[in-house]
Write a structure and sequence with these properties.
homodimer; 332 residues; alpha/beta; globular
Amino acid sequence: MKTTRAQNYVIALLAVIAFATPAARAADPLASWNQGPAKQSIVAFVEKVTKPGSPDFVPVPERIATFDNDGTLWAEQPMYVQVYFVVDRVKALAPQHPKWKDREPFASVLRGDMKGALAGGERGLMEMVMATHTGMTTAEFERIVKDWIATAKHPGTGRLYTQMVYQPMLELLGYLRANGFKTFIVSGGGIEFMRPWTERVYGIPPEQVVGSSVKTQFELRDGQPVLVRLPALNFVDDNAGKPVGINQHIGRRPIAAFGNSDGDLQMLEWTAAGSGARLCLYVHHDDAAREWAYDRKSQVGRLDKGLDEAKAKGWTVVSMKDDWKTVFPAVK
Amino acid sequence: MKTTRAQNYVIALLAVIAFATPAARAADPLASWNQGPAKQSIVAFVEKVTKPGSPDFVPVPERIATFDNDGTLWAEQPMYVQVYFVVDRVKALAPQHPKWKDREPFASVLRGDMKGALAGGERGLMEMVMATHTGMTTAEFERIVKDWIATAKHPGTGRLYTQMVYQPMLELLGYLRANGFKTFIVSGGGIEFMRPWTERVYGIPPEQVVGSSVKTQFELRDGQPVLVRLPALNFVDDNAGKPVGINQHIGRRPIAAFGNSDGDLQMLEWTAAGSGARLCLYVHHDDAAREWAYDRKSQVGRLDKGLDEAKAKGWTVVSMKDDWKTVFPAVK
């Protein structure tokens, strides 16, 4: 039989798959997860929603999974990564703002006094966010984030922040996608702070990132259209804002949701309230040796109410200490 | 050789593709488009951005295409479909609002006087939108839209509104998707008015619909989480709002954009301003015999500035009369 180019292509594909499949099957897609109830609950959930004919079967378009970012996909201690970004931006912009050295919280940041800088609470932090995150175009801000994230390192570990991601969660993202899930980030962090690197680091494209945002405005500058970032909050994607953000961006209820703090509780509640099989999972930071141990009393990523509700409702609680073989990926 | 189940599956797949491919090739994916400059510009664009090695090649994740809805994917004359929905909802809810019969614009609607109902302009219309689109949960509103769209018919043609979609545009959506594009709706219409049916009618899932919205609020009702639709505008996705909505939801610039009115102009400008190959296309309603003919002076879907800019910039302008073999799909 004379073969067409399309047929040749398929034959080549066949050869690749035929040899690749047994190996792919043998490898555990969740290799960094220890055997135990957490891993078991994940695999059992995925198997039942993907098995045709199963009473829990969910069609591919409805396989929506949402992930918090800070503390769920990457580390958030001793401070949220975006706060380090704010601090670095305040320092970089200080020469253009001579009055900052006499004005809190900027003055503390410039003296290197982080405790003093955060003493102003959320209001002081928001003032620094607005001063560093707005007034430029969206393209300019994207460039700033890309340049910063390419080299900025965690003060404790010396790793790039993008190497402070959790290896077991990277595997979980891949496992879900291999099973037809669409994976989204739903984070209290800035949507435009995440989008420049989530595709490279997590395999999550910009259109699947939900986060907090400032208002933007369309303008023509010398005939060129730009979007300008304005110093006004548009949306806070945290706590009760997470289901709102999910509805606004995704328009359907997730069947699986992953978080680590009380800020994720409403997202998990919203997910759990749908009909059919659901997976609600909390990452519990209980590994002081390899990461950090914190929950009910932490200022960053507090998990208190959520831990009670997870226990009451039988949600999956991952012990980083017991359930994860490794925490961070090997650094190349 | 003993074959595994995976290999058997691939062999079956091979057989299907081997026989299906020549036929699929022979069929024109844009069969309802007449040969001409519009069709040519579409095909030439898709071929150059998808051809590996071409200087205009665009990787699959960046193949973002945005479509206006009213007047671009479905008819908008003599009034936007959502206005008919508002009218029907006012009638349905009138028994619960006895005062409406003495209050404009409700009174005119209830008398069947559409001209009087719209005399109050945007403000009067917005009052009716808020009265009919808010105060319920998102799930309740979805049900209302689904029930309405399943049976509501166009007053002029007697077709279901979902049969007032443009066959050539359905083919264009499919052609782009077959070439690795992700297709989005970016409409001034209500995001939650579109999502319940866009997947079925256009193959566009809820997470790829951008539109205008009201604010929503997360609440626990008898322990059950719900999102309540509030009588407050959240976002108007029209004119300069379209690039803002695109940035907020998609987070990257489209390489192709499709509209029919001045309300789409900024979306087309935003799309055109990116580097690399771009396709900006206006559907021009010039077919009074098969659809409607209107442009510079129309109250609904005015195309005036946009038509000038399209000519000045060499964007594609589709003549419904000359470029489309058929307008609406055959009704089964």
